Amino acid sequence: MDFVVVQALTGLAGASSLFLVAAGLTVIFGVTRVVNFAHGSLYMLGAYIGWSILTRLPRDPAWFAAGVLLAALATAALGALLEMGLLRRIYRAPELLQLLATFGVVLMVQDAALYLWGPDELTLPRPPWLRGFVAVAGSRFPLFDLVLIGVGPLVLGLLWLLLARTRFGVLLRAATQDREMVAALGVDQTVLFTVVFALGAGLAGLGGVLSLPDGSANLHIDLDVITDAFVVVVVGGMGSLPGAFLAALLIGELQAFGIVLLPKITLVLVFLVMAVVLVFRPHGLLGRPQAVARGAAEALALVRPAVPALRWLGLAVLALALAAPLFAGPYLLSVLTEMLVAVLFAASLHFMMGPGGMASFGHAAWFGIGAYAAALATHALAAPMPAGLLLAPLAAGAAAGLFGWFIVRLSGVYLAMLTLAFAQIVWAVVFQWDAVTGGDNGILGVWPARWAGDPRVYYLLALALCGGAAMLLRRVLYAPFGYALRATRDSPLRAEAIGLHAGRIRLAAFALAGAAAGLAGGVFAYAKGSVFPTYIAVGHSVDALVAVLLGGVQTIAGPVVGALAYTALFDALLTTSFWRFKLGAFIVLLVLFFPAGIAGAAQRLWERGRPA
Amino acid sequence: MSVLAVSGLGKSFGAVRAVDGVSFAVAAGEMLALIGPNGAGKSTCFNMLNGQIRPETGRILLGGRDITGLPPRRVWRLGVGRTFQITATFASMSVRENVQAALLSFHRRVWRWWRPARGYFAAEADALLDQVGMRAQGDRAAGVLAYGDLKRLELAIALANGPTLLLMDEPTAGMAPAERVALMALARRLAGERGIAVLFTEHDMDVVFGVADRILVLDRGRVIAEGDGVAIRADARVRAVYLGSGATSGGH
Lengths: 612, 252
Ligand SMILES: Nc1ncnc2c1ncn2[C@@H]1O[C@H](COP(=O)(O)OP(=O)(O)OP(=O)(O)O)[C@@H](O)[C@H]1O
Ligand SMILES: [Mg+2]
Prior knowledge:
The complex is a heterodimer.
Chain A: H1 2-32, H2 39-54, H3 61-85, H4 95-117, E1 133-136, E2 139-142, H5 143-165, H6 167-177, H7 179-184, H8 189-210, H9 221-236, H10 241-261, H11 266-280, H12 308-327, H13 330-353, H14 364-379, H15 385-407, H16 412-432, H17 434-437, E3 443-444, H18 455-478, H19 480-490, H20 492-497, H21 502-528, E4 530-531, H22 538-551, H23 558-574, H24 579-593, H25 597-607
Antiparallel strand pairs in A: 1-2, 3-4
Helix pairs in contact in A: 1-5, 1-8, 1-9, 1-10, 2-3, 2-4, 2-8, 2-9, 3-8, 4-24, 5-6, 9-10, 9-11, 9-16, 10-11, 11-16, 13-18, 13-21, 13-22, 13-23, 14-15, 14-16, 14-21, 15-21, 18-19, 18-21, 19-21, 22-23, 22-25
Chain B: E1 2-13, E2 16-27, E3 31-35, H1 42-49, E4 57-62, E5 65-66, H2 72-77, E6 80-83, H3 95-106, H4 122-131, H5 147-158, E7 165-168, H6 177-194, E8 197-201, H7 205-211, E9 214-219, E10 222-227, H8 229-234, H9 236-243, H10 246-249
Helix pairs in contact in B: 3-4, 3-5, 4-5
Bound molecules: adenosine-5'-triphosphate and magnesium ion (MG).
């Protein structure tokens, strides 16, 4: 019984921390409709700034409190800068581009923090009063955690007062419900949005600095925190504060008890709870359906067969690719093989996110499952390479089909979040299941069969498999199934009204895209001779997203062009210092100035002066 | 026997009783107009008939078969075509491809992965477009059409499954008066030639009285009058609703 009480209290403390981040995220979303991926980075900045401030202040409680507030205010100011510099330029962009731009900020902040604070974890020397305990149900419970338990409801109460009792709150609520109405009231939205963003950032900063006594400031907390915050916000319902509080309680307790009772599968439990909530309440516990998904119907280009010039260009590239083993050395061939893998990975994401309208933030999950399936086939089953390459798409397709069942009934941000959460789960399972997956060390020695050992042979095999699969996907898009898929994206209402089973069509597309990504993963595993959990990390999912957007999501050739350009750029950047910062800046600039991508821009140039 | 027979249909949104015990029938070849002021419950009726909204009370019989609560795609398979008040078409497809998509579904060719879709049912699609006067625009993107043309395209799509019942929710909104008359004359002709039962709503009373065989007047979810043009014109309650005396119309 005592155990239950103490764990429950620990869960409450965890819930408070979760709520602080989630509250900021959900308030920002409610008003600006932007899903801020960089929210975790603001939390991380709060922790670092808080560390810098608190280590310079006297160590009694009053100064501590002042330091905490100061750190939160500093983060709020940074948030305001971020809003003015970037966010306000992309409020009207499609959700996916917003997510991507803010992910660019995540990368930039990571390197900025590395530059300013160095790579080591920073812990706060804790004065005695911070190390105190109180007796609870016969055990010792940390005093600071007790304080934390109070902070969550306190912040909820203050936010409630702010919303219910002030003019700012009235405006904010009005903006959450009806943006046009606020505009009509003559309120300066620009200022309102900046203030809201600063408020949300300040809450994140507060969460960050309050995490110091029990943890540390380090370069990983941004992504850890944002994943948790996404889960809480999605479960609670995007934009709903009470929902976020409820969900934070639920997830906090689940984590507290899960860590003790089922340490290995806590993450899986959290995901399951999220999936179940979303199946029964697609807009979260207390969320409301969003009025209209933006950018859905307008500005969709027609899909026409490639013009002859483009066909010739494609054939020329193919001929060049086939001839590559004649002139390229082993190193160049291995780079080219990687490019082929990237092309199929991007093409498979494009398949579901362009024509399918299902933007995924966790596409690396299928790639990783394919890669691990191939590696395990080689190692555990001693299967020959062809069997591994067959198993890769099958395993990934089956997994995508299974989880797709949950995922395809959602849309927009909820779908992106659930794919992200699922990829994180796959990552965690692979990372923690040492005995089978080798954990962090991965699986080594996944070499191709002897007949394919020559880099030239393996390159041609990769060309046949990746190039062939990408062409097949393209073919499917022009076939009736591709039309049906686009129909469900363009107008779900009309699609159902002409007898299309949208759920089944989307699920099939999802599984097919997963299988193709799995094949890319399998080919990659044998090319590299090893597999690692990083294949499944968020960063890898984002690689595919950037490739697709760089190429242009509305064109069929886009993912190919984008994957080639992005791989080349990435390889060039990777060898330089602070490459994350540069990559992040590149992504942000891409979203701001090049939203239609290379192929989109080229198409527009080509079509200029020609009748539509 | 009537193609469509509805009895006791009802649906509430919160405190709003959108449709309240509506019963009627439509025979093959007959055109029934469903009219009423804004918010009377016309679209909600349509949405229940094609399965988009599940009715809380009542039954819907299509050719004697109970279709209450079936999802839209099943209802469509049973031969019900519909157009929407706010047009719903596929913006990333050409006009012809929009109709082809419906034909692919009708002929159960959706799960095909190889042959390009443009080669399927192109002639059939053109024939349908011809009927609604949209053939010349077959290659244009549906996303750039004028509103009246979108409505026509919707009609072509709605005819793709060779329906026995056609539901048209404000099919002529956004059209010039001459176009309205032409479109409804087309519907009239189709109803006659193919024995399609047509249920439609329309705000233009001249159009309604011109083509409808029978008229059903809804107000605040209830049927307040039913009959031919002459009877409806003479009905005191209908006049009250339409001339807008606050007491009967509920102040919309
Ligand atoms: N999805 C919904 N949620 C809540 N209320 C709804 C919904 N759909 C309709 N209503 C309400 O039900 C009533 C009937 O609406 P309906 O759209 O059926 O009217 P209508 O006769 O088609 O009007 P109009 O001529 O304006 O198209 C209205 O009061 C409307 O506000
Ligand atoms: Mg209506």
